[in-house]
Design goal:
The structure is a single chain. 66% of the residues lie in helices and 0% in strands. The chain has 64 residues and is mainly alpha-helical. The protein has one domain (2-61).
Length: 64
């Protein structure tokens, strides 16, 4: 799904897929969370976002 979202320029949805995948892993490296945090900031997503807020909150919980 990630690549399909990227192909259609659905960056927020691609972000959600990655955040969900990282959350499901038991040992997600800190650099993955840092990259997701950087992407979140570039897209100006916050936990208050009505569409992608839950993914943003997930990333913030793992802020290295």
């Amino acid at each position: 799904m990630f690549w399909e979202f990227l192909d259609h320029n659905e960056l927020g949805l691609a972000f959600e897929v990655l955040a969900d995948a990282a959350e499901r892993q038991t040992n997600t490296p800190d650099n993955v969370w840092a990259a997701l945090l950087a992407a979140m900031r570039l897209m100006e997503l916050t936990p208050e976002d009505p569409v992608h807020g839950s993914a943003a909150a997930t990333v913030l919980r793992h802020d290295p």
